[in-house]
Batch of 2 targets.
Target 1
Amino acid sequence: MNVSRKSFASDNNSGVHPAILQAIATANEGHAIAYGDDPITARAVEKLREHFGEEIDAYFVYGGTGANVLGLKQIARPHHSIICPETAHIHNDECGAPEHYTGCKLLTVPSNDGKLTVEGVQRHLHGFGFEHHSQPKVISISQATELGTVYTPEEIRALADLAHRHGMLLHMDGARLCNAAAALDAGLREITTGAGVDVLSFGGAKNGLLIGECVIFFRKELSADFKFTRKQGMQLMSKMRFVAAQYEAYLSGDLCLRLAKRANRTAGSLAAEVEKIPEIQITQPVQSNAVFAILPKEAIEELQRQFFFYVWNEETSEVRWMTSFDTNGDDVMDFVQCIRIVMNKYLR
Amino acid sequence: MNVSRKSFASDNNSGVHPAILQAIATANEGHAIAYGDDPITARAVEKLREHFGEEIDAYFVYGGTGANVLGLKQIARPHHSIICPETAHIHNDECGAPEHYTGCKLLTVPSNDGKLTVEGVQRHLHGFGFEHHSQPKVISISQATELGTVYTPEEIRALADLAHRHGMLLHMDGARLCNAAAALDAGLREITTGAGVDVLSFGGAKNGLLIGECVIFFRKELSADFKFTRKQGMQLMSKMRFVAAQYEAYLSGDLCLRLAKRANRTAGSLAAEVEKIPEIQITQPVQSNAVFAILPKEAIEELQRQFFFYVWNEETSEVRWMTSFDTNGDDVMDFVQCIRIVMNKYLR
Amino acid sequence: MNVSRKSFASDNNSGVHPAILQAIATANEGHAIAYGDDPITARAVEKLREHFGEEIDAYFVYGGTGANVLGLKQIARPHHSIICPETAHIHNDECGAPEHYTGCKLLTVPSNDGKLTVEGVQRHLHGFGFEHHSQPKVISISQATELGTVYTPEEIRALADLAHRHGMLLHMDGARLCNAAAALDAGLREITTGAGVDVLSFGGAKNGLLIGECVIFFRKELSADFKFTRKQGMQLMSKMRFVAAQYEAYLSGDLCLRLAKRANRTAGSLAAEVEKIPEIQITQPVQSNAVFAILPKEAIEELQRQFFFYVWNEETSEVRWMTSFDTNGDDVMDFVQCIRIVMNKYLR
Amino acid sequence: MNVSRKSFASDNNSGVHPAILQAIATANEGHAIAYGDDPITARAVEKLREHFGEEIDAYFVYGGTGANVLGLKQIARPHHSIICPETAHIHNDECGAPEHYTGCKLLTVPSNDGKLTVEGVQRHLHGFGFEHHSQPKVISISQATELGTVYTPEEIRALADLAHRHGMLLHMDGARLCNAAAALDAGLREITTGAGVDVLSFGGAKNGLLIGECVIFFRKELSADFKFTRKQGMQLMSKMRFVAAQYEAYLSGDLCLRLAKRANRTAGSLAAEVEKIPEIQITQPVQSNAVFAILPKEAIEELQRQFFFYVWNEETSEVRWMTSFDTNGDDVMDFVQCIRIVMNKYLR
């Protein structure tokens, strides 16, 4: 298997967009004060304000797990609970970092499409004031979800209102926020603070950045002392300008949305082609850059010999295919062609 | 103050060495499996083995605090104590991350030169087996130290033997390991595992890398399950190849030592020039890339208006000046010239 | 409401059995070395060995949450997960202490009767070796369960075998272990280590003790360094003899089983009487000292004005009634009489 | 060695005062709601208010380590530091519980007499606002100290003022608070909140209680959500009435002060007698119930064969002798007689 062939395994198997790499090179001029007290970081934060609003408080960190964990740690004490769908990245893919480093309990809600609903959350909203019970404090959602689906602003607002009615906060894991924005044709602000989100992990590594994530607090009273939490949380980069420069470029001229749109579009193409193969069942609406599909186990194995990708659910024989900012039409056609050959062979 | 003027504030105010930047660009070819399961990471680990020995187990992480904390967490349980000099980075500069994230107690030893001695450590070696007392488990040293001094291999060996005699382990914070190696004209292996070190944080960001640090275990039985600790510890980079590529370049053709030598040499030049100014007292032997000096408070303030650097000790009016891989003779001369003018003005 | 009237709210609303109080008074002779290095503690451990086997390692702690958390902390590292029924005390009633103080993730299994099944556990047994996934390490069950049901030795053995096949361990919350033993007419050893349990929280406060709980490791290699974990875990009592004396008395002449039998018997009587009231539905098999029943919301409220007890499930109008070692036939008759009057009034 | 002979090892080697034991027996009447929602707990809190003031918020916990750790956890976040003398119980005798369970750094101040001074604390009061530095937040003192010395109200006030000027808080470990009050002939309020203390661990187990400690917040805004921290912190006792009843008795008719006075008085007698032996050097002012003395190593060993006590400092051959509420004049005379015989033998 040629690993460097563009895979459909994950959007973080792709590399760095040339404009991002150029921004890093450009930032490499002389000395700059470390830890973010430099002009590039200041400019990047300004760019964030353009997109998310003047009142934000934004902090760059190394990666997505760090962004989620420290953002949650900032708004929850250890006796609190965090409610998320059972498909959440914070529940499945961070090796228990949220529990270990926030001290909080995670409460999960079953979900077929990766989304939380008001009804689903409500069954965990009890025991307030009862000292034996972890106190519900945060609702956490991913936009786009781990299943490639996208919350509408109204759906987010409903969850935000539910949270706020109970003195709780709404956290968003935005590792693929731009894919969601591109899918909805909405602005970043509209689907975050505009819909009631309180704290956001705003990622870029799945959409053309080399490294870096940003924790954004939409109200300044939420971020008090966060700089200490970031440093103690091992997420303060010394040569900060090189993350900031990426974000500055990423947010300029809507590069972030253009890249996301491209990834979404090729996912759509892939889905459209795959749908023509009757033996393959697409299991989730293809709203961002993921395609989930059920196909025969033997076909999966044969296909994996040629393309690297992950089986999502062994039991149901469901796979996940993801497109990246650099996936193009030819890549999709190659892959689809390969799928067809394998399916024909298998079905024959 | 022109911040981008090469400062003598810190070796992480410098940028990225061109060969490192080139390595990043070269690594940006097509897709690669995320999280380190890629050929560049494999090659970088091979390079580490060339320098540190075949038997190592090495893990890339984001930064120095993460490397120290997770390396220590791996070898100590929360009821253990970690003995370090009171000048240690893990004690002063990581915002309590070691305590919070390992659960261990830090026990400090007074030190004039940033180094631990056998005698200094021994006063903490009691209470073994007594359940009310945090059990001494790790001795942690920095090489080079935070005061720019360098342990000889024999000094390290003495501490390693002391540790091992008590069932303890020796941890080394090697944020400036190459500066120490350059100073001693020794190999990296010789001053680490060759001298009895068990676990090492091997940094590069203070010597020309953009980002990244490496936790190296010198015996495989020490590293069991560390991959989970790294992921849970928010230090697993998705696009790992871009850190690995830096290390591969850094360790090729002894780039790491050449850069460190350069920084050490300019620190030596700076010290030699400053020594000629009788009103300035150099307070530490200049063995690596740091110069510590006492000068009049008013002179410090005037000088800081032109060059950014840190006061190390307000009380004693002591400053720290650091050189970087990119500091050159002209930078030193400019700075010395400025020091002379300020001192003359102040002394007049 | 007369609170000191024997309530059916919880078995820890009862007081201390006279023999236990006498043992405390008897232990109050002269001085004894603190923290457990005294002859009474030695004798109590000997009693534990009589019941649980020679090879145990036993540690007294203050209470049930401490016993569960520290027992689990001893056998799991933070990157591990702990699988329990969604009704577990460790999940619902310890305010997130297990997550905060072990660092582990809790994974829950839906359960109608408070018990785990092999099938229920198996859906969490995946992702072994995958660093993004909390590694399954412990299965935790309560005996008797929080719903008053009791595992047979065969059911425990099946879960133990499942755990051990996967390199995992079986933990038992035995806050009501004696009630289970009495229900099964089995020995304490038979339903713990005899059935494959690795670590046990052995409580007594719900069965006539004043305070105290015991963490029992059934294989000595599991308990290394636990004395430090207990002390650091704030669970080492200074005047240990006064907990040990209780356990010595509790385990002498099978007092523990006699008291449990009494509580179970009155629960049985209560259930038998309540079953005669057709409008009340008993929802769980009454195997130990709890009766779960659904009755009209208005009846619950009226009844609560006279007897203190808890609503288990607001939605289904289900209550929990518990009997204690000191509940007698008259108490049951009083309570049943009251229930009848209330139900008649409500139904009229 | 007859262990039950009244030892001079520790004040928690003594038993329970009869009035306390009686209070426990009296509390054992019928049922009471668990976890503190009972009339005895209400009365005990009322008694605390009589002694400490109406505005307190008080919480019973199991023991001293729990009281200290949870009190500190309540007022400090993990990025904070806690300043204490190097002799502090929280630093030496709690197996690192404060670091592990609060996440904070402990900063120690050298101390010859167990007390903190304003000057000693001040050297740690820097780095405010600097994110690399644990932020100083709490000053913690023990009253009486671990060396048996006692702070005057003025000394406490000076430390409180220092703390408050820096936005910090003053915590007091009052495991032997009554001994200090007795020594000063002062009220409990006068030497705590009256002198500026913000949070207190108020112990009794070293002065005649069986078990239990109380965390007292002197301003209600400091205690928000503490009930969750206590429960999650494994320090919520189910049968709370039995701790509360002890405190009610302890605080009635000044029993607590009478017992402390007795212990102090016998320590004074012991010191007076020992001072007559010229070869023994008393090393600390005997202000409460401890006597620290240097005597020849061989004499220590011989004496320990007859009386159990601890060597405080192996190097200096210093021992600690403590008296308890139940130590009487005859005990002192026996012990002194034994010391004399041993010293004579050794000196001959």
Target 2
Amino acid sequence: MANELLKGKKGIIFGALNEMSIAWNVAEKAYAQGAEFVLSNTEVSIRMGTINELAAKTGSQVIAADATSVDDLKNLFTKAMELYGGKIDFVLHSIGMSPNVRKGIPYTDINYPNFIKTLDISALSLHKILQTAYHMDAIKEWGSVVALSYVAAQRTLTGYNDMGDAKALLESIARSFGYVYGRDRKVRINTISQSPTPTTAGSGVKGIDSLLDFSERMSPLGNANAEEAADYCVLLFSDLTRKVTMQNLYHDGGFSSMGMSQRAIEQYNKSFEDCPGD
Amino acid sequence: MANELLKGKKGIIFGALNEMSIAWNVAEKAYAQGAEFVLSNTEVSIRMGTINELAAKTGSQVIAADATSVDDLKNLFTKAMELYGGKIDFVLHSIGMSPNVRKGIPYTDINYPNFIKTLDISALSLHKILQTAYHMDAIKEWGSVVALSYVAAQRTLTGYNDMGDAKALLESIARSFGYVYGRDRKVRINTISQSPTPTTAGSGVKGIDSLLDFSERMSPLGNANAEEAADYCVLLFSDLTRKVTMQNLYHDGGFSSMGMSQRAIEQYNKSFEDCPGD
Amino acid sequence: MANELLKGKKGIIFGALNEMSIAWNVAEKAYAQGAEFVLSNTEVSIRMGTINELAAKTGSQVIAADATSVDDLKNLFTKAMELYGGKIDFVLHSIGMSPNVRKGIPYTDINYPNFIKTLDISALSLHKILQTAYHMDAIKEWGSVVALSYVAAQRTLTGYNDMGDAKALLESIARSFGYVYGRDRKVRINTISQSPTPTTAGSGVKGIDSLLDFSERMSPLGNANAEEAADYCVLLFSDLTRKVTMQNLYHDGGFSSMGMSQRAIEQYNKSFEDCPGD
Amino acid sequence: MANELLKGKKGIIFGALNEMSIAWNVAEKAYAQGAEFVLSNTEVSIRMGTINELAAKTGSQVIAADATSVDDLKNLFTKAMELYGGKIDFVLHSIGMSPNVRKGIPYTDINYPNFIKTLDISALSLHKILQTAYHMDAIKEWGSVVALSYVAAQRTLTGYNDMGDAKALLESIARSFGYVYGRDRKVRINTISQSPTPTTAGSGVKGIDSLLDFSERMSPLGNANAEEAADYCVLLFSDLTRKVTMQNLYHDGGFSSMGMSQRAIEQYNKSFEDCPGD
């Protein structure tokens, strides 16, 4: 495709670990559409993952930052603005982690410092990014911020634990800050509620395979993958969505609007079938 | 229970066919709580069902009315107001029918006169009841109207066909008329979105058994039954819910807020198990 | 912009009356992005408006069709498929009209044949378009259908009358048909819930000026205009939104997620100010 | 009224400060309906308010607890279970506070330890109450927990600051814990989204008067007051709502379903009127 939807646009992309990451896919797609960007992740994730390959591929700089640290964020925005000689156009927030999920602690045994850590990493980090950018006036008028979310913000999924609460908080912060940043600087903020996606982060959730299968059969178009999610992010960064803000946008093959599909109920019905000889 | 939540209240209950009907259960519960009411249904339903037993049990009068006929409704409200020497306090709308569902016509082969019939019977009938009552000033200040709905208004269920659209329209009419009737006469209008319920009407929907099972396992408290739905209706007719209006209230054991439950996914997983010897 | 987001795509655009129309703007934007399309409207609208100018500008053919007539729709799809030598890629539904609104009949005095006409023109027409296309297999895999809606589908607005109900039904039909068309042919169907827009159709709603002002002040980014709506439609027709379906997408400067803005409440507060000398 | 909807039921009511408090009203209504309960609040609130009067009126014991302290909560549940010789039936959570709001710190200047305090007090406290009760098995089967919320969880209101985010998190926790507590012990958990209410807590929000006026004019039935909220809480504690769980229930005179009312737009229009002589 010869499109250059993001021609001349500069951004910061948080959360690319490896090529399974949605953020990785966003970087590739944004690059293909003419954008330049800084890649950011924590020191640990940079070491564990392969982000430097992505940086090489897309001619990007990697700047480490813990998105829960306002100092790190200030440093990141300062460097990005130096690099681009001014304000940036877009930010991707693809950050989430629950120590409770990681350690297999059930929702009824939650450790509260862990819970706060989940919220801080997965949701407050968005506020910190936005507040830092707001004070540095780091995002251009009609700039765009996207954070990745999941339907667990609205509907409880067994095993998803305190990440459901974190996503609800994330979406609320997007709305709350979306109001003030929109009103004051014309910056828009949205969340994309993505199908369950087999990334390194997603694979920590127990029973993810059955959920992926169920979700695939429930969704008339099937689950959306990381590459497709990246396309949608690119559109939200482009100038063609300037008046979309404070929204949670489902990108899920239709899952969120389904009560029951033919394919899912047929599979479900097989669970009641007797084996021959029973 | 010695409660008399509806003591002295008069109402009209539409839609009791037989003892499986939610409307039948509402009538019994409302009677137990001190209400008097007129029972109404179409001529055909009166003949096919056992509404006269219910009338005898609850000391009620049966007045036939086709809820799509404004003339029938005028006659019904006139007679009810004569009977009670004045305005009434509550109305239950438990009316729904789709000729397309009945005849097994799929959603992609819909016959449009049928579609309009579905909408007229299942949704416009609520507007006709309300407009008739509004013009006759037949409902007291702080009166209450409840219509029964289903989650298909928000989420598509295979086989539910044009009834999903009818429920969406029904809920919208409840909101739209709820605004004007509330503003002008302090009458409140709500819908209850009830679990799938094994009534005579519900049993027409294809694959209702699997759906009931899935819904039962998804809902942390299990499906709500007709008797429990009737309790909820009674509360909405009582003076304890005077400021609740224009709402769609889920009465479904938690189903509507679930993405995936442990019990449902465990059952679903069984569908992939091999039989011994496979 | 050198983008060609719709390069090679063929479509049908319903509802362009004159240059104020959203559909008109969609046609211009789609044309600029490389699409070819047939323009369709009723005979009366074609005569009253200036659609032929648009056709000339965009090299399009105008084919009259009453979207409530299945025969007209069959003829339209047949001709479009002949013209393009095969299936089409996208459809825009920008059709809505309420005889009750036009004649100033309040919601409590509704004439039921009018109400059904409102629903038939504004909502069932989408089902008719889709059912016709489905039977003729007229839309390609991964094709896209968009219908224009309004927040009145969720929240009652004084004066909007039975159009709120029609929009609720429209959005439900988009979901219901979105499920089957997605499952069977990978066609996606969405609605865009657009800011109040000063079009010829919109100007029929009483008190539209105050509403536009209030909505403008409530929305952090201001109301979205017809041109911006057209951009969003183009994106939904493009290959970059393939997994978005059965959604209602707010395109409204943030209005739908606002409870109260600073600008709106400041204006509201002025209403209580005394005049000097009072 | 001779009703005894809560006859024999035991509960814990958090958050009564003085007679303006919703929790105070709930206590009075619950008492009138036959319930016994422990009143709880922080030491400071007990000293600042008049909770002992309420205790005297309702024959209740006051047990101080900081709902962010798991130790305090364990002590409270232990004492309550001793007092009643067993499990309790209901809990009211009417707890919320934002240091950012109190200190007039705008949402774009948020102090993060404050933000976490807002979330801990206003939302995590519900999780702590539930987790404590769950581990002590302190709530009977079919017991009921209600937390008070506000529409700011869904729609941003200027000045409401991080309390909107806290309410979104609170509602999510109610859903998440509602699933596990319902599944394991048949306990239901809901939130009531109440009209803006002139309580001591509510009065901290800047511009609350205009908001109350606007909300009153937008709501067809007017704002719901604290006494009416208390009625609704009582119903949710009663046996008549056993299958309602994981819901956010608007108790707001219809506000949440309104886009624009006649009364509000008429008032708004006055803001544009010229003074005589202008």
